[in-house]
Queue: 2 jobs
Job 1
Amino acid sequence: MNLVPDRLPRRRDEARAMFRNAILDAAEAVFAERGFHGARIQDIAERARIAVGTVYNHFSQKDDVLSALLEERTEGLLAQVRADDREDEPAAFRPRLEARVARMLAYVQKHRAFFAIANEHGLFAGAVAPSARASARNLERMETFRAVFRAIVEEGIASGDLEPFDADALSRFLGGTMRAFVLTSLAQDGADVRAQATMTIDLFLYGASRRRKRAK
Amino acid sequence: MNLVPDRLPRRRDEARAMFRNAILDAAEAVFAERGFHGARIQDIAERARIAVGTVYNHFSQKDDVLSALLEERTEGLLAQVRADDREDEPAAFRPRLEARVARMLAYVQKHRAFFAIANEHGLFAGAVAPSARASARNLERMETFRAVFRAIVEEGIASGDLEPFDADALSRFLGGTMRAFVLTSLAQDGADVRAQATMTIDLFLYGASRRRKRAK
Amino acid sequence: MNLVPDRLPRRRDEARAMFRNAILDAAEAVFAERGFHGARIQDIAERARIAVGTVYNHFSQKDDVLSALLEERTEGLLAQVRADDREDEPAAFRPRLEARVARMLAYVQKHRAFFAIANEHGLFAGAVAPSARASARNLERMETFRAVFRAIVEEGIASGDLEPFDADALSRFLGGTMRAFVLTSLAQDGADVRAQATMTIDLFLYGASRRRKRAK
Amino acid sequence: MNLVPDRLPRRRDEARAMFRNAILDAAEAVFAERGFHGARIQDIAERARIAVGTVYNHFSQKDDVLSALLEERTEGLLAQVRADDREDEPAAFRPRLEARVARMLAYVQKHRAFFAIANEHGLFAGAVAPSARASARNLERMETFRAVFRAIVEEGIASGDLEPFDADALSRFLGGTMRAFVLTSLAQDGADVRAQATMTIDLFLYGASRRRKRAK
DNA sequence: CATGAATGAGTCTTCATTCAT
DNA sequence: GATGAATGAAGACTCATTCAT
């Protein structure tokens, strides 16, 4: 095994990745502060302490910076759901859902600067009419999300934990419920993610009506 | 009563209002098509079949057109909730809530072009961290919304229909649930508003868990 | 003599003149405040308490308002020089010149708001290269001025009071000297016009050098 | 001495300065042709053979281009007066003044395109009432001028060459006299600066009255 | 003739993108 | 590949002028 020829390329790749990440981090901050349209490439470059041209060496358009950010965070968020590779993942529906929701909330909390604006760009746009403005990739992304949520709901229906309503409606409901509390995460700095997850699940499962004798 | 002196001023006011409405209608359509930033004043003027300058005779900035639209639609949406003046408004919590929700869904459906973009401008931003970008008026508007939802929830708690959870959390939950179905309204042309309202309320009240013997 | 047919027309003319004057007065004030380009027809109309359209009933363009003003004030200023009709006008060169200068200074002082900006529009532009921008009428006006000053100077040369220098140079010198003190008039509210006139003439005649034994 | 590291920055600075000068030169010409308001940034850019945006890389507003021009020419004009560093500067009051005036006239002649419009923007506004429109910097500039002229005049009074009149009045008189002949410079292409300077000084010192036996 | 809203040509300014160094 | 100045298309906004009432 000759490692030498590997070394330089590897370093190069690392360097590339560092620039790329620096740009994305800077963009996340600047987008959050000024919104996508209010953010100038110049601002992002300055925040990343690089030159404007360098941004263009890594992304061919401003839009691509946003897309990459959406891609990255979406992927990160979805990774919180996919629990297949976790050994300690609970098996029962509710605790498993709770674990997933808690992880998602934590992730959103960590990147709240970004999620605050992602909303404006259709990340949570749900079933909004696919306007000409929503890029094809955006729609795909939303569809991935939807699929993940639908899978969860279908699991629940299959396991008998959820009422066999329309899976689509239920997945939207789950999304909406989470979103309600995600927004709290965005607003607060040190939100108690665990408690929020519990409340989210509780309301998702049993609603807001006056509980009678049902055991929680 | 001498109506004559009234005539001209009245006509003038009417003319003013007509222009203003034409502009707002055109803006609603253009914003929906291209988004706020993609919409040029020229586009709005053309759609309204007036000159660019005329837009500026009625709104001093592009931003103000959006604001006025938000104002108008927000007010319209809230008007659907305030049921005090309706004689046929049901008295019981659930049917009353259902009626309100149905009216709101219908209103959103009617102005879905607008609500699709209002989303991007914080109308539903909920508790998102009040960024420097959200105008003071925007915050006020969101607060009004919040207050209306909280009032509904508090009614429900008082009447014993809702579990005495934190009113703030419940109002967010109600908002999130509605939003999930509102988005469906936005996507579809002839959505069955009544059915959606029922499903919204049902999920809001009883959640998604498998129903046992509880009477629906 | 039938006065009736005269009455209405006369009143009409008076009315026209009143509007015209109101506009010119307003324009004088607004031009002085904001400069010609900074003054909007709207501003002038407001100051004159009339409608924008009315301004256009009296002047066909914005430029014409300025022109009319220049015309009027130029004429007024020149009227201060032409002393032919005054019975008490001194005959000797120096007192006569002094009287004329004093009257001009007083006139400028009275209309200083206007003269402060007239400068920007070539009223005193003197021999500036006749740019394409200086309207033909403007040049004529300047020429009239020049002619008046030259006449004065030639009088002085003829009477032996002035050194037989180039009449053109002398007239420019007289203009420059006056201008130096006119500017003081513009700055101060209650400038002592008489004293200024005396100083102007004194310097014009004898210069600034140390006086020896010559009787002043 | 290592010049290498210096090279690039030095070249960059030179490049910057070249663009800046190209813009100012173009602006001088265009302003002279069309006046400040009639000059479009586009015109200036075209004349300088650069893009519109480049103008904005060097000046943040159109106003700033004019200001920079005023600054530069004012400084240039004043530099003609400050004779301290000249070895061949005459010591006696009159020849010294004459040298200074000649240099100023030559400078104005050289940049007459500019001075023709500077007039419109208060460069020579003298003691005009400091309107809200005259920028603070403008006033400063005028004050500098005034100070220079006053210093000259005071020198003359101190040396006994000038009558001990009010220094302020005398400095205005000097300015006015010069201005009268400067304007001639502006009009003519190949004006005889030396002769003009002599005439200026002569009139400034001895006025226009008929000379008796006094030795010139 | 007064009125004042409608008109739309005109211009400054911004900023994504390019490219020579 | 980094740099940052040059580029120029694009768009908000102004305001002189028109014209229906």
Job 2
Amino acid sequence: MEHATADNSKHRADSKAKTTSKPPRRRPEARPDEILDTALDLFLAQGFHRTTVEQIARGAKLSKGAVYLYFASKPDILLALVRRAVGAMAERAASHLRQHQGDPCLALRELFHVLTKLAQQDQSFAKVPRLIIHEAPSSPEVAQLYRDEVIAKVLPALMDLLERGMHAGHIRRLDVDMTARCVIGPLMAHLLLSEVFDLRPQSGELELQRLIDTQLTILSAGLAPRQEGDHVSGPH
Amino acid sequence: MEHATADNSKHRADSKAKTTSKPPRRRPEARPDEILDTALDLFLAQGFHRTTVEQIARGAKLSKGAVYLYFASKPDILLALVRRAVGAMAERAASHLRQHQGDPCLALRELFHVLTKLAQQDQSFAKVPRLIIHEAPSSPEVAQLYRDEVIAKVLPALMDLLERGMHAGHIRRLDVDMTARCVIGPLMAHLLLSEVFDLRPQSGELELQRLIDTQLTILSAGLAPRQEGDHVSGPH
Amino acid sequence: MEHATADNSKHRADSKAKTTSKPPRRRPEARPDEILDTALDLFLAQGFHRTTVEQIARGAKLSKGAVYLYFASKPDILLALVRRAVGAMAERAASHLRQHQGDPCLALRELFHVLTKLAQQDQSFAKVPRLIIHEAPSSPEVAQLYRDEVIAKVLPALMDLLERGMHAGHIRRLDVDMTARCVIGPLMAHLLLSEVFDLRPQSGELELQRLIDTQLTILSAGLAPRQEGDHVSGPH
Amino acid sequence: MEHATADNSKHRADSKAKTTSKPPRRRPEARPDEILDTALDLFLAQGFHRTTVEQIARGAKLSKGAVYLYFASKPDILLALVRRAVGAMAERAASHLRQHQGDPCLALRELFHVLTKLAQQDQSFAKVPRLIIHEAPSSPEVAQLYRDEVIAKVLPALMDLLERGMHAGHIRRLDVDMTARCVIGPLMAHLLLSEVFDLRPQSGELELQRLIDTQLTILSAGLAPRQEGDHVSGPH
DNA sequence: AATGAATGAGAGTTCATTCAT
DNA sequence: AATGAATGAACTCTCATTCAT
């Protein structure tokens, strides 16, 4: 069955000009990325365990064995995937947060804006975190990698931003750690849940923007320094 | 039941199709619950795919074959598990939200309080949602079930609460849908992420309480009706 | 081997009466031995590495998966094979040597006689040692097993016999350890080499007898206490 | 293209058949020997099947593909190895035996002495036979080669030596064939078994010498012409 | 002469599921 | 109601071999 298909694929040079006998030899340097791209899509669509190396190979137009020329094992592909997607992005977000001066809410607004843009440009931007949360429970290495590359970089940067904001009086003094989680929590939840549970597909791309706007509105008021009119109780 | 059958009949073969045509095999008695208890523990500890039917049978002190007397397939066990764990809880939360009169923030405070209590009593309370989020991508049935049993019940109730709060002037008027997500987002994110990524284990049980307190504080101010001093821009 | 043959002679369905709908359900207790018998033949014919589990399963009239109900891995089959064949035999040989009184050459004659008889009765008697020597170099566990079960039992018993013979003046005093090896060396070499290298197949069964006779003749004189006429030099 | 396909369909049985019909590929020069040296080391250390062509190529500082410029297949390498190692040695031993005049025991002493020297000089001297005995069962070609190159040369020479010794009255008349095996059996057994089963590693290099001395002592007396005092029975 | 990317045919092993008892 | 022997279809991974360059 398979090699019958393979046989047919021999003739796929038909539309190609016969001037050169070369079948379209793709550059081998591109191979790892092609494998990773395919794997990402498959992992997201079916989950890591349900995806076979054979499928990945087919998607990357390679033989099963060839995949193992580039990655030592199937888990290794997952790891490489996370590593590729996560590092630069976390670095960028963290440095953005660190460099900001002034009201943290403005920094957050800008950050969310940038992230939205990136998400529209690069499909995998939104995919990889979802993959991570799905697979991390059964793959300690993925969890560790994400911990080291993202959480350890972004969370402290965000907490530092908030701390500076509190110190300068831009926002009210609260538990910094927990505040950080309240700030990004809705976005994380949206990222992780919206597609899996198919939450309100009708609004499409706009949805993320609306969520960000609402969250920023709440935060602006919610984090603003107490005013004399406030009579809302804190934790009792 | 009917739509469950419809769902299952999709699943990869017809493992479920028989269930209805099966002779009355004493489905739901003491034995099934023992199987589900064992399965829950194993799924949580190792994930669905890494858990074998053999292990479940051993844990329930049954033979492998006997498990198939009570459940048509392995995915079916997962489904029953989710169904059992999720329904009552969602129902309770939704009715709590619906019955509340007055400031929604107080309702949320009470709801969060109740949930925290439950989480302390029942370990699996916090774990089942994580199991769901982990398995949903590879199991449309689980996603559907969660959608039907939880999201379809709790989210509208929460939105209704907020809508009533806005109408009564307790909270400011915002996009109701997105506000609901901002309200529960941090809790969802915490639930899903904290254990997997081992976020700050040092603070232990208190952590959840601190998160809730911080979130409520932010929401109280963030959702409060605009006062004359406010000059923070909404979405531009 | 023998009872395997008996099993195989079971007319699978052909001559069986159709009176019972039961296919001939073989007793599962016999399964491990059937697998081992088949594996022994295959390992000897093709070597351990060239033999597939599939082949073993086919030979034992089982599915590939069923083999793993009885043995944890392919190497485990090899090990069980050696274990099954080797223990009792070594015990018997050793106790025979230990119980003997008087001239060691007579004990050897009897031992060789018994071994020859056994070899004629049980085909696998001669096969297993060959399997061991073939596979031990790539399987430390097999080597270890053989060391523990055979060498550690038989060699000391043989050395003890010789030592007693020297002490009583039946045989001349020589390096006991090396003498033991000279005594059994030709037999070992024959066992290991004759079939592989197809040495003189024409003489068949008689060959082993002739070798034993010649070796005993040489040993009788070679080990006899020095006589006055001897002028042969020892090691210089 | 066509004949490649044809080749593959056969494989496993005719890898050798091609070797002779191949275009003159510059078989035996410097490179082949480097490959064989590396292969020998690896085969001895890991066995034939556990050694990959990749490893051989790396060891010979060549690409995997280049190995196939010099050898038609992996089994072909083993064959060439045996051929190279075995021929000259057997020739030397045989001619030594043939040229000897007088008491065969003296010839054997000298032969054993020479072999011991060689074994000390060249580590692989003792190892190649072990490789052969290990691989011969799964490789008829290796067995055949060893039969042709060693057994067919050395055994007749040894038998001839013994025959001449019997004729001249130096040793007693016995079954020549079996006597030859009794003479070299202990040495063969030692060669094949001692390292695999790790027999008495404490005595180290001396061990071989002690075995030879003991064996020669036994043979000198055991093969000596009958004296009047002898009353030991031959085969009954 | 030499490379190394690529192949493809299995290998051992696992496991959900079935079925005679 | 319950068993457990048996199956068979996958799965991951390996490696001898080929071929365009």
